[in-house]
Design goal:
Shape: globular
CATH superfamily of the largest domain: Glutamine synthetase/guanido kinase, catalytic domain
CATH topology of the largest domain: Creatine Kinase, Chain A, domain 2
Largest sheet: 9 strands, mixed
Helix content: 25-40%
Number of helices: 11
Keywords: Ligase
Pfam families: Gln-synt_C
Number of strands: 15
Family: Belongs to the glutamine synthetase family.
CATH class of the largest domain: Alpha Beta
CATH architecture of the largest domain: 2-Layer Sandwich
GO molecular function, one term: glutamine synthetase activity
Number of domains: 2
Protein name: Glutamine synthetase
Strand content: 15-25%
Structural class: alpha+beta
Length: about 450
């Protein structure tokens, strides 16, 4: 088992490391992994698609040693999920890679390594800006929380996934994993599970904190519980887990998907429940932070549930899951309180860009703190509130959520920035229109492949 290049156990981001330090890091990569000849500079776009640029390792090392800026592409954040150019995209713009070298890892089964990047943006005649980058946006929000309220956060994800394979006759994707679910040991006897354990070992060797594995759903679904980390490292870790799962099973002719509704007509659904806690736990800030999230939860759905299929996943739930509400240890609401200053946000799936999604969720909580907003929503985990009002309805499809975000953007923009909201809304509206022209099964297969 290879040692990790950088161990993901809470090291701060290395986005401004000196060229000499980066060169030393890449030399260590070459010594420990002599087969690695390419470096993938990766970023996540507004649609949650992981994109990247591959550079020969020696070329990248020479550019870094000379202090040359690293180009991404002028299209880095301006393509839809189905790879159409967003209307109005400037043809003379340029995005620049800002690698976070604490995310450097060798890939499975290939002669390459990967590093996650933030993106700077330039347009002729304008100053360079970070305002369009989801990763930069999360960093700004976290800095505001620390500077104004002395708050930091821990985030942990639940990764639900299904393993698919093509039907040899029809070519359509169908379940490969069939094991019995909901914590059943029987489900661990499915042949797929052997490869899941292999993937976990590879991830743990790279510093990923996987706290538990279990069978989920009725049949054929699995879940990883990832340990809590600061928000940026938590999302970086999540993307690494997604990539390694997909790479592991691709070697066996299968597709791992975290898409919310992988199989048409099947009740099985994948979520990506997100645990968020205030650090330090703060009773005098907790209620206003929760109130800020609940007040803006309908518009936050545009980030948390970023495609129409995302809203299909919510249909099986009852008792308040379709309204902005919360409850102590209640799993039938969008926000479950687990303990003081810690919540599980359940209305999220894996198609979300979690940098911008966490920026928006935390930003909403900070707006609650700034306005000292009262917690007027009852605790639905308390039996005494069984007949209480369940709050504002959540959107039923993406267009509705985007309308709410657009209308409320002035509020949230004070924290996360107007430019990224406008760019996000424009991208998603174009996507809705573009995807509506495709066959629904074609869209489903695309989502299974990408997410």
């Amino acid at each position: 088992m290879h040692n990790p290049i950088i161990n993901l156990k809470g090291e701060p981001p290395m986005t401004a490391a000196a060229p000499s330090k980066v060169t030393e890091l890449l030399n260590r990569l070459q010594r420990n992994h002599p087969l690695v000849k390419f470096l993938r500079f990766q970023w996540q776009d507004y649609s949650g698609v992981l994109r990247g640029r591959v550079v020969p390792l020696d070329t990248a090392m020479a550019q870094i040693a000379e202090g040359k800026p690293l180009k991404a592409t002028g299209l880095a954040l301006t393509c839809s999920v189905d790879n159409h150019l967003i209307p109005g995209t400037p043809t003379d713009a340029q995005f620049w890679l800002v690698p976070d070298w604490s995310t450097l890892h060798p890939n499975i089964g290939s002669g390459s390594a990967q590093v996650l990047c933030s993106l700077d943006y330039t347009l002729p005649g304008h100053e360079m800006t970070q305002a369009l980058c989801p990763r930069h946006t999360l960093s700004r929000v976290l800095r505001q929380a620390q500077e104004r309220w002395g708050l930091s956060f821990l985030v942990g994800f639940e990764v639900e996934f299904l393993i698919l394979k093509p039907n040899p006759t029809t070519g359509q994707m169908e379940r490969c994993s069939r094991g019995w679910g909901l914590f059943s040991i029987s489900g661990l006897r499915d042949p797929c599970y052997e490869h899941i354990e292999l993937c976990v070992l590879q991830l743990k060797a790279r510093g990923v904190d996987i706290q538990a594995i279990h069978t989920e759903g009725v049949r054929g679904q699995y879940e990883f519980a990832l340990g809590p980390k600061p928000p940026m490292q938590a999302v970086d870790q999540l993307l690494l887990v997604h990539s390694y799962l997909k790479d592991t099973f691709a070697q066996h002719g299968c597709t791992v998907t975290m898409a919310p509704k992988p199989v048409a007509g099947d009740s099985l659904a994948n979520g990506q429940h997100t645990h968020l806690s205030l650090q330090p736990a703060s009773p005098h800030l907790e209620e206003s932070f929760l109130a800020g999230m609940l007040k803006r939860l309908p518009s936050l759905c545009s980030f948390c549930l970023p495609q129409d299929v995302s809203y299909e996943r919510l249909k099986p739930f009852v008792a308040g899951a379709d309204t902005a509400c919360w409850g102590t240890e209640c799993r039938l609401v969008p926000i479950r309180k687990i303990e003081p200053s810690r919540w599980e946000i359940r209305c999220i799936d894996a198609m979300a860009n979690m940098y911008s999604t966490l920026a928006a969720i935390i930003g909403a909580g900070l707006m609650g703190l700034a306005g000292q907003e009262p917690l007027v929503w009852p605790d639905l985990g308390d039996p005494a509130n069984a007949d209480a009002d369940r709050g504002e309805p959540l959107p039923k499809k993406l267009d509705e959520a985007l309308d709410l975000l657009d209308a409320d953007a002035g509020d949230l923009a004070a924290v996360i920035g107007r430019r990224i909201i406008d760019q996000y809304v424009g991208t998603k509206r174009f996507e809705v229109s573009s995807l509506s022209k495709l066959d629904p099964e074609e869209v489903r297969e695309l989502f299974n492949e990408l997410f």
